[in-house]
Write a structure and sequence with these properties.
It is elongated and about 65 Å long. Strand 17 and strand 18 form a beta hairpin. The strands form six sheets. Strands 3, 4, 5, 6 and 7 form a five-stranded mixed β-sheet that branches. Strands 11-12-13-16 form a four-stranded mixed β-sheet, with helices on one face. By secondary structure, it is α+β, with helices and mostly antiparallel strands. It has six helices and 18 strands. About 20% of the residues lie in helices and about 25% in strands.
Length: about 325
Amino acid sequence: MISMRKKYRCAALLLILSVLFFSGCGREKEEALEEGMLFVSYLDKEQTKTVRKAYEPNAALADTGLLVSELIQVLSTDSGDVDFVRPIPEGVEVTQTKLEADGDLKVHFNENYRTLESVPEILCRLALVQTLTQVKGVACLEFFVEDEPLLDSKGNEVGEMTNEDFVVNPGEQINSIQHATIDLYFSNRAGDGLVLETQRVYYNNNVSLEKLVIEHLLAGPKLTDAVASLPAETSLVNVSVADRICYVSLDGGFKTQNYDIQEAIVIYSLVNSLTALPHIEKVQISVNGDTSGVYRESFSLGTLYEQDLSYVRTEKSSREVIVNDAKVKGDDPNRME
């Protein structure tokens, strides 16, 4: 499990996501590895997004160290094609890499990295993440200039970056990608309480935060002391907000019974996570738009549920979640930008 380092409190970051890279990336990655091929992420000729190009490495796929070095060299070299711009520009060098046991690849740049303008700098990082996380054993990247952790414009450490940090939305411009931290309530392993986990996310500004919260709840926790609270078969049908009420429609998979997790924990995992957003006070849950009936035995669908933190289980008076090297108190009222 990747450790969660530091909680951002920064404003919008400028990022762009290459739909071609992420579309079906898990399947394509497996197929590419089977064929001895990888993909290298370059910048497009306008330098507004990343684009991928098939690449057959010289190093063996199992040789992690050599493969990382080879791919960094490729990313630092002109492609010979005007449609593909190298993401590591001339003068900027990767001086050192170190792969930790948990899959965190630490990438050190020379001092010239500080001269990069904001958009090329962000795209450089994104291309490195996209390319190097294909390598066996590399789960995330962490960036340094010389031996100092890379900082954002607010002076906060950038911390670990993975492909899962990005939400893909086709056709968006670079200045439409936002960054936020969201509070998510998952089930504890006993199934009788909630565990707060704060996650950092990149998202497109045409994706609502309420949808983002539900998608990350369905994806499950990153911490080892929590488990997904919503049934694995659940899919989101629709979510909307009006008059500070969030209307959530889930498909029939939501009614799949998992009695290892108490019904109140399932309901308030969703309710508490959504009401943690500043623009939501109440949550109504339906199944395929139908608000009749109950969830399991006693929780009526269609009821306007309000936040209830009495189900949150803490081992300390103020539980802390580690996010990007910073300790973030679970009851922090400033969790959103």
